[in-house]
Write a structure and sequence with these properties.
heterodimer; A: mainly beta; seven-stranded mixed beta sheet; four-stranded antiparallel beta sheet; 0% helix; globular; B: mainly beta; six-stranded mixed beta sheet
Chain lengths: 115, 114
């Protein structure tokens, strides 16, 4: 049983396209996150949702729009893709309101390549 | 703002040698601290975490880390490296107040030579 699953695993697309990445967790956690890992492996928080409510929204271009239909799902839609959006996007989840003492469970990542 | 610094983007050890990966945090209040491991083309897996109980924390795969408040450090060690330990290691910190999201260090790639 996969705890945090992301689809697709790989995504290659042309500049200007719109794409979505989906994330689902079956751990019963109430908080979910999107992190971006750049080519130097640096991980940066993008968004966080707690029980479908947006609680963290970092300085991210508004071409990126997260959506959480329920607490088990968090999707990321990206409009007008640019070369600089190429990265690995990780979804993660945590229990109990996202209290950091519990740590996160990560998905296996979506490698986005914009050409 | 809180930050996490990992000294050494690459560390190379021989199989059987001691592994030491360094992590320092900047925070006036000791945060919760974590070490994650990332194998190639995989997600991050939790190795261990410090949550103010014991200062010496044991994790999976023989790794342990010691929280030292005076040095604001949380270095990761393993007495004897194995080839399968080759991976990227990330230190992370989180606080209960303010922005409740983990802040990650820049990662250290561990190479294990036969």
């Amino acid at each position: 049983d996969t705890a945090v699953s992301q689809t697709p695993k790989y995504l290659v697309t042309q500049m200007g396209n719109d794409k979505s990445i989906k994330c689902e967790q079956n751990l019963g956690h109430d908080t979910m996150y999107w992190y971006k890992q750049d080519s130097k492996k640096f991980l940066k928080i993008m968004f966080s949702y707690n029980n479908k409510e947006l609680i963290i929204n970092e300085t991210v271009p508004n071409r990126f729009s997260p959506k959480s239909p329920d607490k088990a799902h968090l999707n990321l839609h990206i409009n007008s893709l640019e070369l600089g959006d190429s990265a690995v996007y990780f979804c993660a989840s945590s229990p109990k309101g996202g209290g950091p003492n519990y740590g996160y469970t990560f998905g296996s990542g979506t490698r986005l390549t914009v050409v | 703002a809180q930050s996490v610094t990992q000294l050494g983007s690459h560390v190379s050890v021989s199989e059987g040698a001691l592994v030491l990966l360094r992590c320092n945090y900047s925070s006036s209040v000791p945060p919760y601290l974590f070490w994650y491991v990332q194998y190639p083309n995989q997600g991050l897996q939790l190795l261990l975490k410090y949550t103010s109980a014991a200062t010496l924390v044991k994790g999976i795969n023989g790794f342990e880390a010691e929280f030292k408040k005076s040095e604001t450090s949380f270095h990761l060690t393993k007495p004897s490296a194995h080839m399968s330990d080759a991976a990227e290691y990330f230190c992370a910190a989180g606080m209960d107040t303010g922005r409740r999201a983990l802040t990650f260090g820049s990662g250290t790639r561990l190479q294990v030579q036969p």
